[in-house]
């Protein structure tokens, strides 16, 4: 940010001061990527031309006034791809090798031999075919898993997924997979896509992983499904309400792994987010095309950018 301060007047603010800071501002770096304060402060944006958000997901700013405006929206796509893929591989190995049970038995000083599963040869469906989903597919293929994708359009011969199913037909394909991994962006089409029907369609023994957005899942349906054994287990990094309330039944379900929205957060990620914005600011100031321009009607950066 120091480099930017040599060429622009930079105002730092929190949610309370956002409206005042927006008056006369040409660009906004929304570093608090979970904040919804921009909508409330929007009437003060009298000359705003560009908003950059420090995340891949843009749902906190997808309110009608921004969608319908001429303001350009960019995101931080690419920062978390490999880190999230590593997290997903980690929880898959934890499930396959029964690591949560081993930790429980260790705390109880119990020696209980068990057999575990192989990861190689298992089938995974990655729901969301953007850069994060592709990084996940490459990571899982590297350990011998068979990976397919689910996205807006069906396709064959995809370089990362091989076969891509249409998300609209998700339930029809779920029975064929051992792991179902949600990395899709939150849009009107994806909200609540994992509901009772989706969980009932999963294969016996299938595990569910969500690192996309909590609102992709109908939480009550997930909990009912976990109690019924479909899915057999879940690793959840995102939730409809964050922080996850202390009285949520998910905390104590024996077949659930919980992490606090940290699947992509590697050491140094905050600095990397600033670097992404700084490069886009350089481009914006120089009149060059911006990176990661979001299609505000789709709610994400289209493939090919």
From TrEMBL:
It holds the Pfam family 2-Hacid_dh. The keyword Oxidoreductase applies. Residues 14-294 form the D-isomer specific 2-hydroxyacid dehydrogenase catalytic domain. The keyword Cell inner membrane does not apply. CDD domains: 2-Hacid_dh_1. Keywords: NAD, Oxidoreductase. Belongs to the D-isomer specific 2-hydroxyacid dehydrogenase family. PANTHER family: 2-HACID_DH_C DOMAIN-CONTAINING PROTEIN (PTHR43333), D-ISOMER SPECIFIC 2-HYDROXYACID DEHYDROGENASE NAD-BINDING DOMAIN-CONTAINING PROTEIN (PTHR43333:SF1). This is D-2-hydroxyacid dehydrogenase.
């Amino acid at each position: 940010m120091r480099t930017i301060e040599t060429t622009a007047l930079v105002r730092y603010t929190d949610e309370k001061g956002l409206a005042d800071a927006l008056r006369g501002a040409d660009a906004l770096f929304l570093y608090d990527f979970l904040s919804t304060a921009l909508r409330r402060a929007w009437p003060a944006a009298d000359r705003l031309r560009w908003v950059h958000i420090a995340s891949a997901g843009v749902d906190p700013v997808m309110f009608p006034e921004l969608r319908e405006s001429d303001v350009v929206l960019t995101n931080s796509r690419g920062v978390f791809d490999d880190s999230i893929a590593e997290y997903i591989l980690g929880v898959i190995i934890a499930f396959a090798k029964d690591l949560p049970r081993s930790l429980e038995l260790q705390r109880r000083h119990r020696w209980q031999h068990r057999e575990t599963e192989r990861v190689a040869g298992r089938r995974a469906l990655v729901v969301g075919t953007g850069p994060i989903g592709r990084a996940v597919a490459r990571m899982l293929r590297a350990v011998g898993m068979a990976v397919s994708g689910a996205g807006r359009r069906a396709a064959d011969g995809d370089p990362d997924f091989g076969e891509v199913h249409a998300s609209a037909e998700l339930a029809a394909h779920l029975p064929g997979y051992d792991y179902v991994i949600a990395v899709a962006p939150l849009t009107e089409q994806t909200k609540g896509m994992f509901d009772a029907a989706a969980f009932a369609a999963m294969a016996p023994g299938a595990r569910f992983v969500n690192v996309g957005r909590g609102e992709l899942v109908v939480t009550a349906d997930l909990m009912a499904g976990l109690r019924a054994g479909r899915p057999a287990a879940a690793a959840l990094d995102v939730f409809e309400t964050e922080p996850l309330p202390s009285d949520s039944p998910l905390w104590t379900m024996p077949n659930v792994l919980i992490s606090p929205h940290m699947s992509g957060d590697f050491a140094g990620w905050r600095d990397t987010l600033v670097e992404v914005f700084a490069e886009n600011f350089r481009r914006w100031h120089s009149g060059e095309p911006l990176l990661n321009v979001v299609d505000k009607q789709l709610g994400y950066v289209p493939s090919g950018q």
